[in-house]
Amino acid sequence: MDPLVTNLVEPQDDSSQAPSKPAGDVKPEDDLLVLKPAPERTQYDVSENLGSALTEEAIPAASVRSLGSSIEEDSSEHDTTTPSSSAPPSESGNLDCATHHFASSTAIADLVPELFTENIMAKVLRTAQAALPFLPTAFPEIVPQQDNHDGSYSLREADFWTCGFFPGTMYNMLERLIKYPQRMHLSSSVDLKHLRNQLTVLCRTWVEPVRGMDERTDTHDIGFIVMPALRADWELFGNQQSLDSIVKAAHSLATRYVPTAGAIRSWDLLKKKNIEIIDQDQNMIVIIDSMCNLDLLYYAAHHAQDSKLAEIATTHAATLLHSHLRPEFMLSASKDAYRGQWYSTCHVANIDPRTGELKQRMTAQGYEHDSTWSRGQAWGILGYAETYMWTRDSRFLEAACGLAEYFVYRLETSPVCVSCARYVPLWDFDAPIENENEPLRDSSAGTIAANGMLLLSQALAGIGQTQLSLRFRNTALRIVQDTLSFALAPEKARLVSGSYHQIRAEEMSPERRYDGMLKFGTANNNANARNRYANHGLVYGDYYLVEFGNRKTGEECEYESKRIKPGLKSGAIDNLHRRIDELEQRFNAQESRFEQYKHSSPHETGHIRQSSSKSAACSILALLAKELPKLTDGLSNGGVATPATNEESNKRRRLADKDNIILHTLDSDEVPPLPQAEMLEAIVAAYFSRVHPWIPMIHQARFLQRFSIEQQRRKLSVVIQAMILAASKFVSGSQGGHVEQARRWVVCTAMETLSLESLQALTILAFDDIGNGQASKAWAIIGSMTRTVEYMGLAQEQEDSELHPFCQAYACLENTDDWTEEEERRRVFWNVFLLDRFCSVTMGWSTSLTSDDVFRRLPCDGHLWRKQNAVLTPYFGIWDKSKGRIGNPIGFISQPTSLIDESSATETAAHGQMRGTPSIDMGQNGAADMSTVGAFAYNIEATESMSRVVSYFLQQKVSIRNQGEISSWLTRFKELDLRLVHWKMLLPQKWKANPNLTRQVPLMDPNLTTAHVTHNTSMILLHQLIAYPPPQWSFRNRLPSTCSAEACYTAGTEIATITEKYLTKSSPTSPVGCQYAFCLFVAARVLLAHWRYAREKILAAEFWSILHSLEEMSRRWIAFSGRLHCEENLFSQYHRRLRRLHERCAEDENFRLNIMDYTKDMDDCRGSEPSQSFRTWPNVGVTLPLDDLGLSLLSPEFNTDPMLDQDFIDMDRVIAFEDGSMFTSSFDLGANGW
């Protein structure tokens, strides 16, 4: 987004403008002086007289052939020593661009009306909706023009430099809807309010993963990534998180600054077919594109008042004047052309980082090293124009003018074959034209250059250079006009209103689709490039096209001689009186109610008046809490909530948010008040980006449809309140008091009805309670939900069957033909199922939802659900608990019981067995079609695997005196171990791609990562009793303890490694699920046990890595809730308990953990002694010798059918990080990042 003077805003009270800077010489060290406290939409200060800055005194001798000297030939047109006489001076003697009238958008809208058509909006909306399921792993990048392509955007990994442009385009369209909707040429059937609300929610969804990239120090393109969307989010809505991310991103970029070279390192290395530069000690690669990332540094310096950031940006820009700019001859005969030094620019410069000397110039995307790559020239124009607007340094204005004039010259002198749309630049001005009928262009270079020239025009207009300003303005418009006539995609789209006021986009011609706005973009046509991309739609070409429409032209700024007096605007007092009248009417209404009961009996009167008085007080207090912030807002300049860039505005916003505080008199049957609409939308967006990935059960698009309708929102009230409780901690400024009352209301309301919304609300509540370290509150809710899902029929598929009971159960939910709704019900059940299994494993309790209850398909892949593509998934086999006692083989336990006749159709199901889509059983899923399931389903599998280890192995009662029981118990051990190994071996190939991590993985799927961590935890729980057996087992020395100990240790270290990588690659503001925390606790505990049992001198470093990870998870869970010094959350509880266990182990070398006592250790929140741990090996009691039992462990006679014992010993049981299998899935996630 460009400097804010270029945006179309309502006139603001000029008292909010920054004071003008005194006239005088502008020196580099004074750069930050113009970074004054900003008005509500920060504006470039073009109001000052920069004549002295353009004199020879302020220009280095080597640069005297520039704007100042060249203009002397025609001082009447380009006088640089005094302001233009046509612009009256301000009170300080300088020019003030004080007001920017809304009507100023007329020029661009009328000259290039195609920028404001419904087609543009429809394409943005369609791509935002279609690509949403792939967040946060991928973002739109290109649209190939080939006939064999479907016309949709091809996506690129999230860490690519282009990921910020499409979110920025969305915010540009939203800015139009908010600020000048009458310029949007939309059909009458489209409701602007609903479109604006829908796009707002989408923007906040798309901006979340961008905000999570602010700590990246591996790229200089962080400005391209964060500024387009985050700057708009801050300036339109005052979102403090976005401004904080901008400042953080600027500091991340500053880490790449090399003081000895005076520049920011662009690339760490350069590898092409003809060149390779990899030594960073002797080489520093800087590209011209980096000029457009300096806006990030200046913007952050302004808001954070950090002069260092501005100094880095200015020094970098000055360095590139010499390293990249190449002087060119002035060849134009046009009398209005810029008469100073012209420049072309190289693409890449290699600088010696030790001395700052230029080593070589080259290109990576242009034709040749000394050719003029058109997009590189465009980056230079825009970058130096932006830098001048921040610094007022004449060197940068001269550079921008010289680059722009040379660009215009090359356009005007293009070969004859470019006569059609001459102002659409060739991809490289010096490259040979291979096909004169279709010369290769780059439409993106044109839109970027047009933005730069328009900004340059504004800068020149601000200092009175009217004629030169007009030249660059007209050229910018000509470029855009030619680009639209030549490159605008003929495949058009339109907006269509659907159900629930949901607006979608569709093709005007069904057989022709093209999601890009422009065609004929050339990303890279260098002959030595690894991949050449030409004739594509480019996301940054579209972004700068839309951005151009949101800019103001230089001639449209109105300069006023006097500032508008501060004070209340007209109508403010009337508005104040009107609100006071409303309050008086409320008081009068309450008095009338009292009069109705004045003749009642004393007892009745007292009771009624007490109740009425209480109600009246509550009503008035609530009204005051709601209205007072609005009265305060009535005193503001603009009276709109759009800008929030000054401190007072932000404070008022926070006061307004206080109306979501629940009054002390809130009763259990009184609905807690909702936050203001803007805050509520932010909380809902935070829910889908932060909470939903761990409990994916609400279809986001369907929910938002209902959420946007008032009547439907009432039905969702219990879900919305639960979302507020769980997600408000992730939204800055949203925390209110009386959370416990709101929680009580959710529980009471949800328990009163059997509805899907009630179950969803309780699931959210239980998840939040456990994470908050209040698991005891959640167990009763989980126990209730396990029965409720049965009552509501959610544990069974609704498919028809020929077998029916004579007594039909009451149907709480009607059957539905809507596959998306049925999948949502299915996911609600599986989330309750996971909570039940988590409760069972962590607390050692018996499971509910057994094979008698459950007859369910697995959930489908998340992106298929979000796209509402109906698919069929396999059933998940639940073991028969009644057959699970020791002695029964697992095959007998897992054998399904048929519920349907053999003649049933292929789409009907048997209990655990289905024609066409058979039931799957973990570790034996080779026969089932798993192509339609995703990460969530594998997490269910892994969790049930862990539950089976506990239920069918650890919780079984076995007498160590009984030869048969021990033999059967060890057989069960081997069978379960085999199934865990098979689960890994039988993962579909798509989950096993990239085994050696040969490519960088930007983000890791939370559900799939949890599945792998859970799998390794299952290995620990299964093997730890064999690895570290109780001392009273006389036969412990005959157990395969060494093999099992190795499996436990390896699994623990792998969990630590996976977690470290996950936290590194995930957003620093995204929380982690509760089950993940339990897995870390088990892993760290087994590493402690291994340290003490193996008597090793040094504790594994992975133990401390896990503690660090738990600390980070605790920080992420706390977020903005302010619970730093309050009660502990789950992660901090685990962290503290592990530290205490370590202290005990370190203090007493004879101290030994009771490896199976983890349920008491994890539940010990009061810091008591570790329960039932062995200080020393106790005397072994009277037990039967192993030989007397007739056992010969690990002998050839002790085998299970599937595998020999030697195979058992050599098996690879652990899911290692190197497998890479958690990185290749499409995320089973929701919005904004997931």
Written overview of the protein:
- This protein is mainly alpha-helical.
- The longest helix is centred in the middle third of the chain and has 32 residues, at 602-633.
- 45% of the residues lie in helices and 5% in strands.
- Helix 5 (192-211) packs across helix 18 (677-691) and helix 28 (935-954) packs antiparallel against helix 29.
- The protein is globular and about 105 Å long.
Tally of contiguous helical segments: 37
Mean pLDDT: 75
Q: Can you count the beta strands?
A: 16
Strand residue content: under 5%
By oligomeric state, this entry counts as: single chain
Largest sheet: 3 strands, antiparallel
Q: Return residue spans where pLDDT drops below 50 for at least 5 consecutive residues.
A: 1-106, 554-570, 601-614, 630-666, 895-917, 992-999, 1163-1210, 1217-1234
Radius of gyration: 34 Å
Q: Specify the overall morphology.
A: globular
Percent range of helical residues: 40-55%
What is the rounded distance between the termini?
Answer: 25 Å
Q: Please state the structural category.
A: mainly alpha
Major β-sheet strand ordering: 2-1-14
Family: Belongs to the glycosyl hydrolase 88 family.
Region (Disordered): 1-96
GO biological process, one term: polysaccharide catabolic process
Protein name: Xylanolytic transcriptional activator regulatory domain-containing protein
